[in-house]
């Protein structure tokens, strides 16, 4: 079995869009509170093109990880559609869903909690092969060694346990496990946020190399906008359960249209001390509103420096519409204004 083996070619491979999320909602009811619910994802629509890396950014609690679990069918949607390689997965069950899941894998945030401490590294990476009945016993062992070599680890480490490895090495093991069944789509859920900066760079470079070699498609979730820019082709910005802006990585950094995007970008430190001292970062007022009872109209209007309140910002929800550069969308009544 060869390390460079690609995912099986299907009839829908000609579609440039591998994943469509269409008006997806995920509400978590709060027991004993009269029908109240946490509106974690509240009407998200986006597309991920085949072979690209889409970065997804936003503050903690905005719904990024929940959206990732909806996309990978680890959570059921409240409403809406998720279409992967031309097939709607939101209604799949049983064997059909199991076959579809082989094509999409996840790399988790915490490399310490995502690996079973009672299993050897070889067993952890081989488990997906066992589950799908891929290859004979000897072929699976060879595949595990090839995957370890592929992610930069010694192929003779198969009999070691996770506690014997550093955080960066554990994340490489998680990457090897995700690649074991030759997926076409990988969700990286804060895959580098728990690592040291120098190790982050190594893992990002590894992910980029793997993407080129296997023509992978990534959904890359992160807080660090500098990391997202380095890895992603396009970027989507989430706020309180909604996508508020999407654009190519250079467009969203050079020509941000939504005031929340501008605030996030202004929080990135500049390595030049003189430039950093001269900057005037955008300081958002107030706290993030509750996802149980989000504000009316534009959800960002309670913290927005350009909001017209009272007025259209507090009364009418803005649509995600074209603004700024080509293929750039923003959900703001006054997109582009400062």
Keywords:
338 residues, eight-stranded mixed sheet, four-stranded antiparallel sheet, alpha/beta, 12 strands, 11 helices
Describe the model.
This protein is α/β, with parallel strands linked by helices. The protein has 11 helices and 12 strands. It has helices at residues 64-71, 94-101, 121-132, 137-150, 167-179, 197-214, 225-231, 249-254, 259-266, 273-278, 312-315; strands at residues 17-29, 37-49, 53-57, 79-84, 87-88, 104-107, 185-189, 217-221, 234-239, 242-248, 321-322, 329-330. The N and C termini lie far apart (56 Å).
Helix and strand topology:
Layout: E1 17-29, E2 37-49, E3 53-57, H1 64-71, E4 79-84, E5 87-88, H2 94-101, E6 104-107, H3 121-132, H4 137-150, H5 167-179, E7 185-189, H6 197-214, E8 217-221, H7 225-231, E9 234-239, E10 242-248, H8 249-254, H9 259-266, H10 273-278, H11 312-315, E11 321-322, E12 329-330
Parallel strand pairs: 3-8, 3-9, 6-7, 7-8
Antiparallel strand pairs: 1-2, 1-4, 4-5, 9-10, 10-12, 11-12
Helix pairs in contact: 3-4, 3-5, 4-5, 5-6
């Amino acid at each position: 079995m060869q390390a460079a083996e690609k995912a099986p070619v299907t009839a829908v491979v000609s579609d440039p869009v591998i994943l469509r999320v269409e008006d997806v909602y995920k509400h978590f009811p709060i027991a004993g509170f009269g029908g109240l619910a946490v509106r974690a994802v509240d009407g998200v629509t986006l597309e991920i093109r085949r072979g690209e890396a889409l970065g997804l950014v936003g503050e903690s609690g905005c719904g990024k990880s929940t959206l990732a679990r909806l996309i990978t069918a680890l959570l059921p949607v409240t409403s809406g559609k998720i279409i992967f390689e031309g097939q709607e997965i939101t209604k799949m069950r049983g064997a059909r869903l199991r076959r579809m899941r082989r094509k999409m894998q996840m790399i988790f945030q915490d490399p310490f909690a995502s690996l079973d401490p009672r299993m050897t590294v070889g067993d952890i990476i081989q488990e997906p092969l066992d589950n799908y009945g891929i290859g004979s016993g000897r072929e699976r062992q060879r595949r595990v060694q090839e995957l370890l070599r592929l992610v930069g680890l010694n192929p003779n480490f198969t009999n070691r346990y996770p506690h014997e490895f550093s955080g960066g090495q554990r994340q490489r093991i998680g990457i090897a496990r995700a690649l074991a069944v030759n997926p076409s789509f990988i969700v990286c859920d804060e895959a580098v946020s728990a690592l040291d900066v120098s190790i982050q760079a190594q893992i990002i470079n590894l992910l980029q190399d793997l993407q080129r070699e296997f023509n992978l498609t990534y959904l890359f979730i992160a807080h660090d906008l500098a990391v997202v820019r380095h890895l992603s082709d396009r970027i989507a910005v989430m706020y309180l359960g909604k996508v508020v802006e999407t654009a190519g990585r250079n467009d969203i950094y050079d020509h941000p249209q939504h005031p929340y995007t501008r605030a996030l970008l202004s929080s990135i430190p500049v390595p030049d001390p003189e430039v950093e001292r001269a900057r005037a970062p955008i300081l958002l007022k107030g706290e993030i509103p509750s996802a149980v009872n989000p504000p009316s109209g534009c959800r960002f209007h309670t913290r927005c420096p350009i909001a017209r309140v009272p007025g259209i910002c507090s009364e009418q929800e803005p649509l995600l519409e074209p603004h700024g550069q080509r293929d750039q969308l923003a959900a703001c009544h006054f997109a582009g204004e400062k």
